[in-house]
Amino acid sequence: MDESQLLKGILEGCILSIIAKGETYGYEILSQLEEDGFEGLGEGTLYPVLTRLDKKGYILCRKAKSPLGPIRKYYSITENGKENLEKFKEVYKKMTQKADKILFCNDLNEEKGGDGIC
Amino acid sequence: MDESQLLKGILEGCILSIIAKGETYGYEILSQLEEDGFEGLGEGTLYPVLTRLDKKGYILCRKAKSPLGPIRKYYSITENGKENLEKFKEVYKKMTQKADKILFCNDLNEEKGGDGIC
DNA sequence: CACAACTACTTGACATAACAAAGTAGATGT
DNA sequence: ACATCTACTTTGTTATGTCAAGTAGTTGTG
User: Fold this and answer.
1) Average pLDDT over chain B, rounded to an integer
2) Straight-line distance from CA A50 to C1' C12, in Å?
3) Which of A16, A43, A114, B7 is the most buried (most CB within 10 A)?
């Protein structure tokens, strides 16, 4: 059961969502993700996502000095990125609703979040 | 926004869950998934998953004639598979809870399912 | 001043899984 | 004979997360 496969696609949306809440930089995103329960994510996982989001035009990049280390790259979301984030949320919501139904609506009255999905 | 990436990992769990509900075969699983909202899944997507689940020992395979076509391969879940399915559900639940929090708990009181995630 | 420790980003090689497209083949009906 | 539906296989492509290693600026300790 490879957890990393489940992350695919989700991670990019989560990172875009974090940037949407305010300008931030890689290292901070990493600690934010850690705080949110996504532990053990390496830098080699995060930075390629940022590059990708930038290439797609979903975020803007601005370089600025750090008060305690090498140069930071600050990212902020673009209009294009905001639109994409909303689309992503819709797709994510639909996808998980479908999966929830198959996974948690068996013969028995199993439940996922406490609300009645079934 | 590539939907197929979001499917990764989820699909395997869903298919295992469908098999857990009773012995079935590929073509039937495909129509079941379609019924559950996973439309447009090709055979080239489904069958490799079944092979994988079989290799991992999560399902058993039995060949039998079809009343209306070529031979079918009937699959049923193993004890090992049942255990794995439960583990998968846990991992899936945790993962989506984390993602839900990041995606739907912004400054505004957005909501996902109607229950208070935030 | 040398060195460790923390911050911060980069790069390259790799594994996994979904997907498209094409193929093989049995059964049925016209 | 031919189309159609059922049913499974195979091959190559692509996207994305992951590991490992590297580069580099800043601060504090001995």
Assistant:
1) 91
2) 17
3) A16
